[in-house]
Amino acid sequence: MTGPQSNIVHVIGAGLAGSEAAWQVAKAGVPVVLHEMRPTRMTEAHRTDGLAELVCSNSFRSDDAANNAVGLLHAEMRRLDSLVMRAADANQVPAGGALAVDRDGFSAAVTKALNDHPLIQIARGEVKGLPPADWSNVIVATGPLTSAPLADAIRELTDENALAFFDAIAPIVHRESIDMSVAWFQSRYDKVGPGGTGADYINCPMTKEQYDGFVAALIAGEKTEFKEWETNTPYFDGCLPIEVMAERGPETLRHGPMKPVGLTNPHDPTTKAYAIVQLRQDNKLGTLYNIVGFQTKLKYGEQQRIFRTIPGLAKAEFARLGGLHRNTFLNSPKLLDGQLRLRAQPRLRFAGQMTGCEGYVESASVGLIAGLYAAADARGETLVSPPGTTALGSLLGHITGGHIETIEPGTRSFQPMNINFGLFPPLATAPTKKPDGTRLRGNEKTVAKKQAMSALALADLDRWIADHLRIAAAA
To answer: Could you tell me how far CA 256 lies from the centroid of its own chain?
Structure first.
């Protein structure tokens, strides 16, 4: 790659955020070097050298842009020609109302697109410590498993103790080992999602006695020992280990991942299951299924013993057992400016989970906007941030502290956050009537409010794209 360093953007880390950032920079006509330490140096969670490897779930969650904040974020990213969303859409597998992907096909699609782009150079090898001084435009997207030399350098530069939390991985089961004389295919409430049929999950029913025994086994099961430096690390509530949820109360799982609502067992349609374990397709071939919500820190032998007590999984063969890894993120409202630049050294911009967003789509979306910011900087321009009424803008508000003046003053702890409508500014006027003129009642008001916020978000994003970006909005 030719040209002075000042015209090159360096992206460190080729996970979802880094891959998306590199794509956006190159698409804007700016050369980019994408640095990835794998396979030279692997992490505790990754298994391949593929770019944008999914190490936890294969789900991008809801694809409902009208009623769900993450579905809205999907729609916004598609309008911004997101590589991550393009690869996800091309490699989707049935998952009810969710967008789930074949993880290997997804990674392969992202890797090929980045390898094939003439403005992208992929550099394999670890960036140890702070990037060289002549790298004037850098995006750090090294994720929750940032290597120690770089993490230590950032910590020293910011004079700020890194915050950290644990993220747990769910086990994956071979489809052929599931007993379908006990289990059955059905999506909750028969909901049809992207690429789905309304019968996209495998469901395993439990009686009260089976459920009580299962919860007791989870609590008593032998867990992974923490290293000394991990003992005070909290969990992120959106990804709690199954046994930690069980410890919070005997009914917790029945109101979480094992809720029995919206499902009818065709083998015994008149009997209502007390609890239901769901498995979601994990690859395009349909040969692998992950156990939904079953992130765990149980030891491997315990996982096999306890999970095989689930009806239908007595002879389950596991393609991957659950695990646990530590995530690290910055105190972003204090350390980063409104364009994700490190206040202590503005040539460094951060993206992805390091900034305090949580979730695949959220991480990729922050990589997307970081790439757009960096490309504008390389052209000597300043990009106006997306409106706070959009999913992307509201997530940036959470990360950079732009939302803080709207809530009560005082010191508060910054925590990782999934996109949700609670991050959006309130509507100036909430809807009160249906299209036919009748008054909205009860839950109808909540639904109408979300739909109005989504419609406003997409309209405002389209205007922002037309006014500030050199791309056309995609339908």
So the answer is: 19
